[in-house]
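Feature request, filed as a ticket because there's no other form

It would be nice if the structure record came with a short human-readable summary line next to the tokens. Right now we just get the raw output. Example of a typical job, pasted below so the devs can see what we mean:
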Amino acid sequence: MKLKTRKLSPQGSLLSDSTTARPRTSAGFTLMEVLLVLGILGVIMAMVVPKVLGRQKHASIDATRVSIGGLSQALKLYSLDHGGDFPSATAGLEVLLKKPASQDTAWKGPYLEQAPKDAWGQPLVYEFPGKRNTDSFDISSIGPDHVPGTPDDIGNWE
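Raw output as currently delivered:
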């Protein structure tokens, strides 16, 4: 009969043949701890990201409304300088940016520094006479879905 021998570690404790004692030299995280933290972060992100993205959409809509208001004011200034007349649909917003080639002595612009765009980088649409503001003009943006004629369109009739 063969007896199993055991070795003593340098600290004096018994060790089996198959194991050796190693002092733990680094304090790290176990895989389970890392996965738990990642899971918690995932849950937090799942709750926060939709709120942030939703707020971004509302901020873009608000910024577009401000742009429409600024363009509306520029058109009203143009109208004051031109005896109550607004730019024609064919002349468009270009007459707000630079003096027309015709001898327009009433023009006191530029009324805008640059062509107005919505928060999504699309140009604002000017219609005169307006379809919704029949006695005035319509200014609109095609909205966040970039499709004209949908409920998310933004205009000066709201």
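Something like this underneath would help us a lot:
The chain is about 35% helix and 10% strand.
The mean pLDDT is 83.
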